[in-house]
Amino acid sequence: MQVKSFMFDMIRSELEDVVGVENVSTSEVDRASYTVDYFWLSRMWQDRGAEGPKPDIIVRPGSSEEVSKVLKIANYYKIPVHTWGGGSGSQGGALPMAGGILLDMKRMNKLISIDLNSHSITAEAGMIFQQLEWYANEKGYSCMHIPSCLTCGTIGGALGHRGIGIFSSKYGKIDDQCMSMEVVLPNGDIINTLPVPKHAAGPDLNQIFIGSEGTLGIITKATFRLFELPKYMKHHAFLFKSMKDGLAAGRDIMQKTQPSIMRLFDEAETISIIKKIIGFEKRGAFLNLSVDGPDERLVDIQMEIIKEICAKYGAEDMGSEYGEKWYENRITFFYPDHIMDVPQMFGTMDTVADFGHVEEIYWAMKNAIESNFPGVRFIAHCSHWYGWGTMIYDRFIMDNPPEDKEEALRLHNQIWNTGVRAAMEHGGVINDHHGIGLKLSRLMKEQYGPAFQVMEGLKKSLDPNGIMNPYKLGL
Amino acid sequence: MISQNALRHAEKCRFCFMCRHLCPIQLQTGKEVNTPRAKGLLLSMVNKGAAEFDKDMAQTMYECLICDACVNDCATGYQPPLYIREARTEAVVNDLAPQAVMQLIENVDATGNIYGVQKPSFAQEGSDVLVYIGEVAACKVPQMAEGLLKVLAKAGVSAKVLDNEPASGVMLADLMGYVDEVAQQAKACAAAINATGIKTVVVLDSYDAEIMKQRYAQWGAEINAEIITATAYVAKLIEDGKLAAKAACGTLGACHDDDRLARTFYEFAPIRAIAKAAGYQLTEMFNKERLAKSCGSAVALAYMPNIVTKVAAGRWDDLARTEATAMLTASPEAYLCLSQATPEGKQVVDLYSALAE
């Protein structure tokens, strides 16, 4: 649809009627602030002085009802709708690539309830997750969803891309922690998923909308499990001779005990980032972990078993000091000067696989990237573990990418295609917890094969006009 | 447009999302542009010729309290207020600042204070300490100034207050950055203080104390005396037994750590000692001390009252989640802002007046 003459102003006034004049903006300053998220491409584009993707109209709704009315308007006029929470996603999922309306959800940041009987907390989805965590902490509880973007992302953002926190190995991902949600469908209907997350009343609606990245609807409220704040937490570190030994030990640890944090770094990352942040000087595969619990005896006995497992695989026991240092600096890694930044080119491939494939995938990706792209470094760690496998937080870094922005974009995508295809060919899944967004959208059909028709069917049914977050998630 | 140093900070902040959860204006307005990241991004765009520094952008640079919550949070040490202040200088120089801001600057030119009035005088003679009242207390919260002077008298402190007390420069610095006019105000203020020969200056408004302690020397405006916050000074009088604690008043209160005490001076114990001595039973808000949420500043309240009132309401929300009925403050700026949004059944308490009664 082409908006001509004063039709744009007509639509704008309709939107103002819904959310108030002060919550609609078309100013250049507002529009410019949404052109860059945490995706390397949007950052590189800005760094080279080029114009990023701008929305046409910014709308800041204050309630689910307002979201509903905005979507009805958008559907009538067939205007693209992009949802923006904290904007801190690394996959370009929030970028307004098709222009149109950008719904900034941050006004919807109210705490709705805390149920200490059921151990749950409910809030609007535009709340920054740290705020939700503080509300839980005030009562002596925690959501135990503590990602590095805790202070950056919103509840809706964490749900939208299937986020994860550092305590995931014990407390699960956001999709394990979310109990129920309110979602506004593209047609404006406000629906609720079932009030509890476990049932036999058909497929789980939560899991349809979690990870849908704003392509199937807009999450407006969510209820999460609460956990008592751990009374005891102990940290430890080990050094393995190889990733192979570290992966085997990690597998046994996950299958015999329950650490809340476990991170295994390959040698390239051990001698670079780990050395820089916590001052660890040795070569090898560094592993830090944390065990928590309500009773110190439970923590101690698990730690003893973990030490035995690590000894079995030839690990050097580095004591608690470096485990504690890692924990103290767990967020420091993500501040400027501690993390990669433009003009470097970089990306986090974030592959997940079972234990039967994960080591093979690590080597396949490392070889594919290092042999095909001279000047590109590959570093990796495994930061989130499951009983059946783990994820590889595999990063490529190029210090001197092409100066021409189109050439840089092309090379960036070639590296991604090569790395991700190597992972998929060896049994890996395209992403563990950053999501798909714009970055990996083109690879979704390759990942799913014929199964992708299920998602396409959902998209056609729920969003027949295709207005919701176009170009994302392969939909 | 802005200095290379300020630009370096902006360029580092433009892709960093880590501190937005602490920004009181972002939390209340929900606007992306009201994050330190967005302000850094916009200035980076201007530097690259990809955006124009126009009235809208200037307006954006004023939608910030300079409360330092972002600075306090940054693990690396980057400082959004650095580039925001310089952008304000640019806005004023190029006549792009909001009209409400320009009016305050004109008021300062005409009367020496942002309120554009003859600043009330609390002049008195004394020899132990010089009390610097500041324009917010003098013009808007006079009872707090009177309360402090009564408390000092009660403790047997001989306190002098200047007649025609000069501006500290803090208001102008927030409105137009650290420009020559601010340095001139600082020099005049330092000269007036030094002329008294008194060696202890008790500063009622922590915002004034900040600029005196942290900025004056770099402008050659040294004060030849110890600068001490009124909270720290009064707490010491209590500790030394020069002020007797009052009987319990039966009210449960929570102390609000104002922006400067919280994030410039890291001064937390004195206000609580004063509150206890004033008879209050204390509880705490969850976001306290260095993490205390700003309730606004007097200068921001003067040019964007609606937004600052929302920010103050946000602080009252923090209190509402405790059992406390009283928000306790010894800051005239906090008192003024909190008073704009006091909920029914709650009260904002000026601790000096409470102690003096």
List descriptors:
heterodimer, A: about 475 residues, alpha+beta, Uridine Diphospho-n-acetylenolpyruvylglucosamine Reductase, domain 2, Uridine Diphospho-n-acetylenolpyruvylglucosamine Reductase, domain 3, Alpha-Beta Plaits, 4 domains, 8-stranded antiparallel β-sheet, about 35% helix, about 20% strand, globular, B: about 350 residues, Fumarate Reductase Iron-sulfur Protein, Chain B, domain 2, Rossmann fold, 3 domains, 4-stranded parallel β-sheet, 19 helices, 8 strands, about 10% strand
Explain this structure to me?
The complex is a heterodimer of chains A (475) and B (357). Chain A has 475 residues and is of the alpha+beta class. Chain A has four domains: 100 residues, Uridine Diphospho-n-acetylenolpyruvylglucosamine Reductase, domain 2 (2-Layer Sandwich), CATH 3.30.43.10; 121 residues, Uridine Diphospho-n-acetylenolpyruvylglucosamine Reductase, domain 3 (2-Layer Sandwich), CATH 3.30.465.10; 103 residues, Alpha-Beta Plaits (2-Layer Sandwich); 95 residues, GMP Synthetase, Chain A, domain 3 (2-Layer Sandwich). Chain A is built from 17 helices and 19 strands. In chain A, strands 12, 13, 14, 15, 16, 17, 18 and 19 form an eight-stranded antiparallel sheet that branches. In chain A, strands 5-6-10-8-9 form a five-stranded antiparallel sheet. In chain A, β8 and β9 form a beta hairpin. The longest helix of chain A is centred in the C-terminal third of the chain and has 21 residues. The radius of gyration of chain A is 23 Å and the shape is globular. The model of chain A has no long low-confidence stretch (mean pLDDT 97). Chain B is of the alpha/beta class and 357 residues long. Chain B has three domains: 94 residues, Alpha-helical ferredoxin (Fumarate Reductase Iron-sulfur Protein, Chain B, domain 2, Orthogonal Bundle), CATH 1.10.1060.10; 108 residues, 3-Layer(aba) Sandwich (Rossmann fold), CATH 3.40.50; 113 residues, Rossmann fold (3-Layer(aba) Sandwich), CATH 3.40.50. Chain B is built from 19 helices and eight strands. In chain B, the strands form two sheets. In chain B, strands 2-1-3-4 form a four-stranded parallel sheet. Chain B has a four-stranded parallel sheet with strand order 6-5-7-8, sandwiched between helices. In chain B, α18 links the parallel β7 and β8. In chain B, α1 crosses α6. The N and C termini of chain B lie far apart (52 Å). Classes of the chains: A alpha+beta (475), B alpha/beta (357). The interface between A and B is large, with 47 and 42 residues.
